[in-house]
Amino acid sequence: MSTESVTRSLQRARNGVGVGGGGAPVRQRRNKALNHGTTFFFFALPSLFLLLLLNLYPVIYAGFQSVHNGDLIDPGDFIGLHNYLTVLQTADFWRAARFTVIFTIVGVFGSWAIGLGIALLLRTKIPANPVFKVLLLLPWVVPTVVSATAWNWLVATPQAPLPVIAKAIGFGDVSFLGDPLAAQVLVCIFKVWISFPFMMMMLSSALAAVDTNVYEASRVDGAGTWQTFTRITLPMISRTTYVSWILMTIFCVNDFPTIYLLTGGGPVNATQSLVVMAYQTVFANQQVGPGVAIAFIMTIVLVIVSVVLYRQIRKASIE
Amino acid sequence: MAQQSGGAFTRRTFIGVAGGVAASTLLAACSRAGGNGGSGGGGGAKSAKFWNMPWGSDAFLAEDKRIVAAYKPDSGLPSFTYQQIQWANFTQTFQSAVASNTNPAVSSGGGTQAFQFAAQGKIAYADDLFDSWEGDLKDDFLDGLLDTMKTDDGYAAIPYNLDVRCSWYNKTLMEEAGATPPTTWDEYLETCAKLKAKGYYGFGLGSGAGSFTGSHILTGFMINNGGGIFNDKLEPDLVTPENEEAIDFILELVHKGYSDPNSATYTSANVQSQWKAKKFAFGWDGAGLPANVGPVAPDLVVGEPLKSRSGKQGFLYFPNNIMMYKNTPSQKGSEAFLTYYYKNMKTLWTKKTGIGLPPLKSIANTPEVSGDSNNKTILDKWNPIYHTWGAPGTSGLFANVAYTVDGTQPMITFTQSILGGKVKAADALKTLQNQIEPLMKK
């Protein structure tokens, strides 16, 4: 077979035709493939239409609002990127951005560390293991409004349980919600508490998929516990880890109820994240354009972070 | 072949049905979005929506629902359905509804919303309604109350209840501390000192998530000293000697430990729990406080208005109102419903449901209202000195109050910074001025 005929055969093979195939079947199969494509397109059309209507339209309209100076009722005049520039020049925006970064880093890595620790613990033979699993899921399952109310009860007043305990063990009068730094720490801990069951579930399933023979082989080779953990466990669950980091980053950056229900962004905006700031700018201050601009800036940053982490996943898959 | 074995249900049929469903959904969605004032649809008989706020205890909701359910409209006019809107994020609820044309035909709400929506062209002015009430209900309103609803284009709303801010004290705890009810700022400091010696807080209030009462109280103290937020040009004018002196006085209360260190983040529920726990012996709240503090309610007494160091009196109140929207199934229906409601709402007060003070003299004079010593103190001693958000510039209200100070984030932040005690009065007032100026709308 000459090089030319091989190339021709490969091309025909790519077109779905056998090496010895003729012209008429090719047309028939192409038509069939086209018909299938058209059919699938029409199948998807109603869903696509609703998807565009429900998702794309609000985004486009929000974009429209972000370059206007109106309110929820009257869109107002076109002002270009003025809202974006104004927002980016305010100290409040950068303070909220800083807290969002801290909140996200603590939320992602705090919940990942605890989730991984518990997932590893649950692999050992603990009595009533399924019961523990269910109980550990509760913080994730319980509605945030219920959790926030419970945490408020735990810390809000000086005679609440945690301030009483803090005083008894020598920390003095701790104002968990009244002191800006304490409120920031509390909100981050609350986020970790709510989120670790999600990480635990993700990592439990990843750990379950790791071949036990690998561990046995490492033991035979004399690897210690720490070496096994860092050289085998972590690399083997790295894909799931990156996926969970991406998801938790999105959850944290977009998390409104955890912060708003516990502190309302206070005291004195100490726990105001960008999403809380966007909400308060739109609905409390009735500044729709700047509020939506904040949300768009957040989205852009979030997409960039997600792409970077996604590349890490691909890298991990290749390795 | 197997794909087609499902009888007549072919791919084309599926696509057709799916397209039809999508189109129907879209049409239904558009139909709802374009609907008006809570039109209930369905046949010839329309219904309209009445949204009311939780102005009192659970008893208020039950009684208010009963009154609305008993409304029998004349032929051709819509019936009304009742919905209670929670205070949490209420501005969002109303704005979203108005923006999407899913607003009720008639509603109460925040005291300044009617003026905001009127400026946006969404309010049906109440002038015709008041004309129809001439010689009847119109003359029954408390003196001067109707004027607070007046705008250049007409009456933006109908006064509904007076949501007042005043001082409260627990008489048992006061007696135990040997303190007497104060009448001046300096006496108030002495009272707080005695209460503190017994472990009680004398400056009880809250300014946490969703709680705006703290910002009301601070504004009240500014008004108490002859100051306030707006000047006679209806522009924010916060950095004045009167306001600075008032905020300095608040800071003195905070620095001396007379306020709860957590009060900056107390929700209404937290504040009420502190009254119940007998930690707050003297504080500032609305007229409905006793309805929410359970067993300590009988001990609570309304204090007297304080004279500031400059000898002035004054405080903040909200002439809450009911507004009619242009987007309604029937304007005549809205007016007929409100005529019925105002003629039958007396039991909301006589049954002590916790709603603020009544707007009508005929209700204020009932034994159930005037016989309550706390109500009497508010009506006799506080009511004459009350001012609106517009003080000291005006006695009325206007749209920019809603945009700048009523429930806005700068007011919360300002209040939390003062209650935190780590700022200077002049700096905090200047910051607030700078933050609310950009929120003004022309």
UniProtKB/TrEMBL annotation, chain A:
Transmembrane segments: 39-60, 99-122, 134-154, 174-194, 242-262, 291-310
Biased composition (Polar residues): 1-12
Domain of life according to the entry: Bacteria
Entry keywords, A to Z: Cell membrane, Membrane, Transmembrane, Transmembrane helix, Transport
Annotated CDD domains: TM_PBP2
Topological type in the membrane: Multi-pass membrane protein
Pfam families: BPD_transp_1
Annotated spans, Disordered: 1-24
Subcellular location: Cell membrane
Domain (ABC transmembrane type-1) ranges: 97-309
UniProt record similarity statement: Belongs to the binding-protein-dependent transport system permease family.
Record-given protein name: Sugar ABC transporter permease
Source organism (scientific name): Gryllotalpicola daejeonensis
UniProtKB/TrEMBL annotation, chain B:
Organism for this UniProt entry: Gryllotalpicola daejeonensis
Protein's name according to its UniProt entry: Extracellular solute-binding protein
Pfam (any one): SBP_bac_1
PROSITE patterns: TAT
Domain of life: Bacteria
